[in-house]
Amino acid sequence: NIAIFWFRRDLRLEDNASLYHALRSGLQVQPIFIFDSNILDDLEDKADKRVLFIHQALEQIQAQLVGLKSSLDVRHGKPMEVFTQLLSEYKIAAVYTNHDYEPYASERDAAIAAMLKEKGIAFHTFKDQVIFEKEEVVKDDGKPYTVFTPYSRKWKAKLNAFYLKSYPTADYFNGFHKRSPKALPSLEDIGFSAGSFSFPDPELDPKIAKKYTEQRDFPAVRGTSRLGVHLRFGTISIRQLAKQATQLNETYLNELIWRDFYHMILWNFPRVGKGLSFKPEYDQIKWRNNEKEFAAWCEGRTGYPIVDAGMRELNTTGYMHNRVRMIVASFLTKHLLIDWRWGEAYFAKKLLDFDLAANNGGWQWAAGSGCDAAPYFRIFNPYLQTKKFDPDGAYIKKWVPELNELTYPRPIVEHELARKRCLDTYAAAIRS
Ligand code: FAD
Description:
Blueprint: E1 2-7, H1 17-23, E2 28-36, H2 37-40, H3 49-67, E3 73-77, H4 79-89, E4 92-98, H5 103-118, E5 122-126, H6 148-158, H7 161-164, H8 206-210, H9 212-215, H10 228-233, H11 238-248, H12 250-268, H13 291-299, H14 305-317, H15 322-335, H16 340-350, H17 356-367, H18 382-389, H19 394-399, H20 415-431
Parallel strand pairs: 1-2, 1-4, 2-3, 4-5
Helix pairs in contact: 6-12, 11-12, 12-17, 14-15, 15-17, 16-17
């Protein structure tokens, strides 16, 4: 009899909540990963770096497991079908995994749980990717918060050493199922192309953390942690990171609280992850949705240097600085009056750190449709933003070197005209 441990967005052996419980169950633990074809089939880019990232993380886990005389069992397919196969190959007494708050994942897990239950097999799930989840931090009346500041206050009041403690999984590593190594499928085997890329290190640089408050808003400075992709795939533990943040920098901790906040929102209000505005009246906005303008935005040809720099950084590196994410998102929704869902989908394709909860939260914040969003009449002025946050133009020069040449496009829309058009359009929807 064995226990299956199912890796998803928690690709590490150390300080992994559900893995810890599995290893302590007394059953031999067989770790698995599923390249989920329901997700992979939707990826257009067959050289998608996120698949490469997962593959590299699995290779590292495999090397650790082989050293422990165990092995990953990595499959490719639809999870329900993969589990049917696993049930015919292993004598499974229990399945362990960590919570995933996205609507697709909740439905998938409910279906797997029901299937296992029919066979008398327990499905044990644990909180791992956030500090506080679901209904752990709620208002005094028991309802979920929809405004960040009071949420963060309650979050901080509830925090204590218990919630930051790492799970000592390594003490129980002899609980892995002993077996000969099973080869991982290659990227080609799952329909992707092999590649190489140097991802940021999965560690918080204390020098960056200490100066975070002063430097995080300047895209030309290496002032943020670049840990998004590691938090997304769980190659770093949120407990370990939040603990460091409590010691190093409160502003940084605050950003990790935003991350918990948006996961909490997505879980309590799954409609936001299904294409609906948090504030329903914002779904009345008459978007212009001009396809040519959308293409110019995607390709960094709007004639607004800060916007174009951001989009080019994204297209080239899979990363965009947070300040610039806010600027380009505001520009798309307010200056061009293009539906935030178009921008959300484009970011979802391109960002290495793409995360449904944070991306949707960021887009609805910029569009004004989200919980605790910027009021719609506050429209970022890209020129003033540049003056404040890229004062010597270093970021723009890096990404838009042809700025002073004739080939650089004229502004796609004049700022004052766009501002007025946006106010009129939003007001009409919100009044109605
Ligand atoms: P740091 O500034 O070093 O922050 C550390 C970590 O805190 C981040 O890695 C992230 O996990 C978390 N964090 C920081 N800011 C936020 C925030 N506002 N909301 C939620 N979590 C936050 N973040 C994503 O992780 N995935 C996304 O898909 C995503 N899409 C965004 C879309 C828009 C339109 C906007 C405005 C923001 C988006 N963000 C997203 C939030 C933020 O821009 C990124 O988390 C951050 O830029 C990642 O870089 P970093 O790791 O250096 O961040």
